[in-house]
Every structure is written in C-alpha cells, then in structure tokens.
Amino acid sequence: MDRSDKRKVIIKRCLHDPHRISIISALRAQRPSLYESSECPFCPGREFMTPRASLVLVRSGNELKFSNELSAGVISDWLVRVFPNKYPALINRPEVRPGERGTYSTYGYHEVLVECRAHDESTYLSDRVNVYYALLTLRERFRQIMMDEYIEYSIAIKNSGAGVGASVPHPHIQLFGLTFTPPEVVGEVGAFEEAVECPLCRLMGLRDLIVYSSNYFVLAAAPAPRTPFEMFLVPKRHELCFTNVSNEELEDLAEVLRLALIAVRSYLRVDYNLWLHSAPKGVSRYHWHIEILPATARWGGFEKGTGVYLTTTFPEDATSELRGFINELVS
Fold first, then answer.
1. Does 197 share its domain with 331?
2. Taking the model in full, what pTM does it have?
3. The CATH number of the domain where 108 resides is what?
4. How far apart are the first and last CA of the chain?
5. How far is CA 217 from the centre of its chain?
6. Domain that holds residue 267
C-alpha cells in the first residue's frame, strides 16, 4: 500500500448518535465486481494476482502446517490462504497506530481468507473437511491478529452473493482487526454483563427454537429475527473466545456450519451474510457465537430508521422448516 493511501481512509463518529461509526475508505471504491469474470484472483494458479499471503495452510505428509509468503515465494499447494485485502477499509502501517489503546483509529487489519481451492460454494460445502480447514486457519489468524497490542477486537464476516456485498464468487471470509470494539458488540457485552443467566445458554434451552444439535454446538433460530430464518450457531461450552476452541470442537463446528449454509443455499435459495462474534480484550462475561442472516427480506425506512425489524415468519415456524430439511439431509 502506498503511503498516500493513509489519507484515503478516515474514521468518523456521528454527531448526534455516538454509537454510529463510519469508516470512509476511498480504496474500497476501486474494487471490481468479478462475478462475470473468468479470471478469479482467488483460484489456484493466480496467487500472483493477490498480495503475498500472511498465512497459508498446507499439507506436509500426513500433517497440516501453517506457513506464509512474507519471507519466501508463492506457495502454490495451499489448502487455505490469508492475505491483505487489496482494497482495504483499514491500514496496517505503524504511522497510523493510535496514541493509546482502545481509541478509534484507521489502523488495523483487513484480510481475505480464501476458504478452499474450489471456485464454487457448492463444491466447498460438499465436504466437511473443507470447512474445517477454513476454520482451523481462521482460528490461527485470529490468534495472531489479537496478539497486536493495538487491536481490541477482531471479527470474521462472510458475504455470499453479489446482492449482499460480495465482489468475488469464490468462497472467502473477510477478517478485520480493529483498535476499538464496534457498537453492536458493545451492546452485546452490556447484555451479557447485566444478565443473571447467559442469554445464549438460555437460548439453547428453548427447544422450540433448536434447529439442530451436535456434540458441541447448537444451531438455533433467532428469537427476534431481523430477517426470516435468521440463525445463531452457539457453542454448548460457555466460552468467551473463538480462539479457545479445540480441534475436536472445530471439526464439529465445521459440520454444523456446513449444514446451516446448505439449508440457506438449497432450501431457502438465497444469498447470506454471516459473522463471528468473539469477546473483546478485557471482557469477562461473553459467549462467542456465529450469526447467519439470510437475504430473505429487504429492510425499508422503518427498519433503518428505528432499529426495529418487521419480519413475516415466526421463529418457531422457521425452526420447524429448517429442522426438517437438515434432519432429512443428515439421515
């Protein structure tokens, strides 16, 4: 990134609503839409089209190992790749680091995690091991980013489909490292701290909302959905951070997440967004989780102007439909 690029990214807070924050990045305007292109930069053999990978998962004999391309050349036999976004919302340069921790800054990480070598999502979701490799790499990169003393919060997000924000169809996740905790998570932390019982542990006890339950995870319909069929994926073990998940739990998570996304794609037949919320630094009461938001409705002025969401499907009905589809899928 050119040094002049630091002047193309700024951060602003709304004057009348301190909970509203905008990162204004002129760099993001340069990103092309590659849905009609045959030259996917994320496919094997086109590694030269992206920045050098900060983390690569490879197979060495019978073992999985992490490497990177920062001190060596391109690694072509990768399983999962992570590299800086070419059109970032944040700048990872020492000169833009904040003067003190916890302050709003454009310093941070904005990276792309290419989930697999396959270009299409149906192939990616056809095998649990693909999702496991992606989660394994995500956990490692999360750990690395959170070691940066200036980073207070990391979030992983996925936009699947051109209509929900994706510019490349190849399965990928975006990973952000922020110098501050975003307002949505600040609100969640407050709810966890004020609650007598963990809200997500309580959700797992609401049987009418349980779509699917595995050894380590519960997939539940959101009790107050923002769009019809919104889902939460929650670990049964009450844990603050995604980085503390074991390999065995990750394997289980891979299967449950795979089933949830197949349901969105094959049953609901819509695009989706998902994000992973983990505890910010210094927080002692939280329960990490994944939220899956299918694009089953468009928000109008009422939703955008009030933060109150009008939906058309009762969560119990959504549970019944999704549960039936997934049970048939696994039987």
1. yes
2. 0.94
3. 3.30.428.10
4. 50
5. 17
6. 186-331
